[in-house]
């Protein structure tokens, strides 16, 4: 199976997971893969809202995609927390976060990275410091990894186990605690 196919399968599975999180059932699907995997936003400024890998296909899920640029990454043998700690020139996790935050800034949304390392069954959710602070009262009892990017202007990342994050953070919490950027 090629990397594009694996990425597409991963994105579809995340859409199904999030649809279930929102409504308690996988179908009907509420979210689906973005056309051209978010590349539509680079074609024209009028497509700026089409960033990320996940888009809403139902009014029931718009609250999530109106607030978040959701970027999905699956696999990547070379991605490692060790690289982050050693300041390697190539750090895929950092590159993923740069892409996620840049697209979020362009579309005036918050960044959300969904990442699964090759060989692991459970994805991680990466959110920004701003989101962590907004959701602190709900997240303070969860285990997480805090990635600080040194002297860069890159905002810190907080990584959570995906199922634990979404069993703690409900759709109503997102609707009530996270404002749509204006």
Automatic annotation (TrEMBL):
InterPro entries, sorted: D14-like (IPR056931)
Pfam families: PDDEXK_15 (PF24608)
Name this protein carries in UniProt: YqaJ viral recombinase domain-containing protein
Source organism per UniProt: viral metagenome
């Amino acid at each position: 199976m090629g990397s594009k196919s694996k990425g597409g399968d991963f994105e579809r599975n995340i859409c199904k997971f999030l649809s279930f999180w929102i409504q308690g059932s996988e179908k009907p699907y509420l979210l689906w893969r973005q056309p051209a995997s978010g590349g539509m936003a680079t074609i024209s400024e009028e497509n700026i809202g089409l960033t990320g890998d996940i888009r809403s296909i139902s009014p029931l899920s718009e609250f999530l995609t109106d607030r978040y640029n959701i970027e999905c990454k699956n696999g990547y043998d070379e991605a490692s927390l060790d690289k982050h700690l050693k300041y390697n020139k190539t750090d895929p996790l950092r590159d993923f976060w740069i892409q996620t935050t840049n697209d979020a800034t362009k579309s005036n949304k918050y960044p959300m990275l969904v990442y699964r390392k090759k060989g692991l069954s459970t994805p991680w959710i990466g959110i920004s410091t701003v989101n962590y602070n907004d959701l602190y009262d709900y997240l303070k009892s969860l285990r997480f990894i805090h990635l600080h990017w040194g002297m860069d202007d890159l905002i810190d990342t907080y990584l959570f186990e995906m199922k634990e994050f979404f069993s703690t953070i409900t759709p109503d919490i997102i609707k009530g605690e996270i404002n749509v950027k204006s």
